[in-house]
Amino acid sequence: WYHARELPVQPVTPSRSSINVASTTYPTVSSVKELSSAPDTSLSIVTQPHITIKLLHEAKEAGISCVWMQPGSFDDESLQYAKKEFKSAIGGFEDNPGNGGEGWCVLVDGDDAIFRAKEDKAGGKL
Asked: What is the pTM of this model?
């Protein structure tokens, strides 16, 4: 999704030095703490819930302000932590269930989210 929209991405995974998407190779970092500009980075999380809560604590320490937890990546504990600790946290069904039936998902709802964010920015809400 990010690649198809030509958005800047920095994969985070401790298990690989790079990932390939289509014909592009993206170097990875092994930890959120290694991101070059964490305060200017939003984090899309696609991990199991027991890993997500650790990742959220790391992200908070690194200065990340916005997280998007994909369906299946969070439990009640991590969702509540994210809602409390980050400027913006997307996950679950509150406010709008998303279009995919499993809560907010960037693959299904990302284009709507970009559109809404642009509207909010233009209207002075961001």
From this structure: 0.75
DSSP conformational letter for 32: G
3-state secondary structure 36-51: CCHHHCEEEECCCHHH
CA-CA distance, 68 to 85, in Å (whole number)? 13
Burial code (b: 16+ CB inside 10 Å, e: under 16) for 28-42 equals eeeebeebeebeebe
100: pLDDT confidence band, cut at 50, 70 and 90? low
Task: Say if strands 42-45 and 66-69 run parallel, antiparallel, or are unpaired.
Answer: parallel
Reported as type and span, the H/E element at residue 115 is helix 106-122
3-class DSSP assignment, residue 84: helix
pLDDT band at 104 (very low <50, low <70, confident <90, very high): low
